């Protein structure tokens, strides 16, 4: 059973990494990111196939197949269809969004497997999802903090260049274009990780019947921060805002995220 849990956790983490590269392609039409994302997704398909076959072989009597196997098969079909679409059709956006659904189903399905056991199994599954949630949210915070520092550097350098206040200190800064590129990469990593971690948290609350916590300040502020970053991505994609305006918008979104961190003392969520 321990090996099975380890394999399932590996599938979740590799799936999440694949979505990061697909999101990078979604943002910047990067062929390299798409190839890596597709390669990781193929690896997910291989692991899922092996895991699914193992589960089905242990339940040769189809009448004994549980909801866990059904949803595992559903997630496997999503990955399979998305790989076929990616190979033969140029509709990359739908491949990304379909696999976001597939990842959510795979995470939720942990509870379906635990429900077949006793209360200790459900508790163990909850802890496993909590580990996934914490891992994703910590990486998201790190990436978005890095982006916020770059946004602050952009505003400082832009102000110095605009006012023509040159110095040796300013000359040591990277170019505005380079700061923008690295800031974009921070967003490409941080935003999908934040979204996936929140989806796991909400799934956990719904399954455990703690729906009232969806109105908790920490949960609401987390979604507010996610919405702000999505607004930033939308404005960035439209290309109608200056670099300085985008940097300000990023810092506002990050401020909402900081308020979320500060709200831990007033929250009963964690």
Automatic annotation (TrEMBL):
Signal peptide positions are: none
Name of protein: Cytochrome c assembly protein
Q: Where are the transmembrane segments?
A: 6-24, 36-56, 68-86, 93-112, 132-157, 186-207, 219-237, 249-269
Q: Which PANTHER family match?
A: INNER MEMBRANE PROTEIN YPJD
This protein's GO cellular component annotations are: plasma membrane
Q: Which InterPro entries match?
A: Cyt_c_assembly (IPR002541), YpjD/HemX (IPR052372)
Q: Name one GO molecular function term.
A: heme binding
Query: Which BP terms in the Gene Ontology apply to this protein?
Result: cytochrome complex assembly
Q: Which domain of life is it from?
A: Bacteria
According to its UniProt entry, this protein's organism is Paenibacillus agaridevorans
Q: Does the keyword Coiled coil apply?
A: no
What's in the keyword line of the UniProt record? Membrane, Transmembrane, Transmembrane helix
Q: Where is the Cytochrome c assembly protein domain?
A: 69-265
């Amino acid at each position: 059973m321990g090996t099975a849990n380890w394999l399932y956790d590996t599938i979740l983490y590799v799936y999440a990494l694949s979505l990061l590269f697909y999101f990078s392609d979604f943002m910047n039409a990067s062929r390299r990111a798409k190839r890596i994302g597709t390669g990781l997704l193929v690896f997910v398909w291989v692991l899922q196939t092996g895991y699914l076959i193992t589960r089905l072989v242990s339940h040769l009597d189809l009448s004994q197949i549980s909801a866990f196997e059904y949803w595992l098969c559903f997630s496997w079909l999503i990955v399979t269809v998305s790989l076929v679409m990616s190979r033969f059709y140029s509709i990359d956006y739908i491949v990304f969004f379909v696999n976001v659904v597939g990842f959510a189903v795979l995470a939720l399905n942990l509870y379906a497997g635990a429900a077949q056991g006793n209360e200790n199994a459900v508790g163990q599954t909850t802890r496993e999802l909590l580990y996934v949630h914490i891992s994703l949210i910590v990486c998201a915070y790190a990436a978005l903090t890095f982006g916020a520092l770059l946004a602050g550097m952009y505003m400082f350098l832009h102000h110095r260049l605009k006012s023509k206040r040159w110095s040796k200190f300013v000359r040591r800064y990277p170019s505005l274009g380079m700061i923008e590129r690295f800031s974009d990469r921070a967003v490409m990593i941080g935003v999908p990780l934040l979204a996936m971690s929140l989806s796991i948290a909400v799934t956990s609350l719904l399954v455990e019947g703690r729906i009232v916590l969806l109105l908790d300040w920490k949960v609401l502020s987390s979604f507010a921060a996610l919405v702000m970053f999505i607004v930033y991505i939308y404005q960035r994609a439209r290309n109608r805002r200056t670099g300085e305006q985008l940097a300000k918008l990023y810092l506002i979104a990050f401020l909402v995220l900081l308020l979320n961190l500060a709200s831990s003392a007033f929250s009963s969520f964690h």
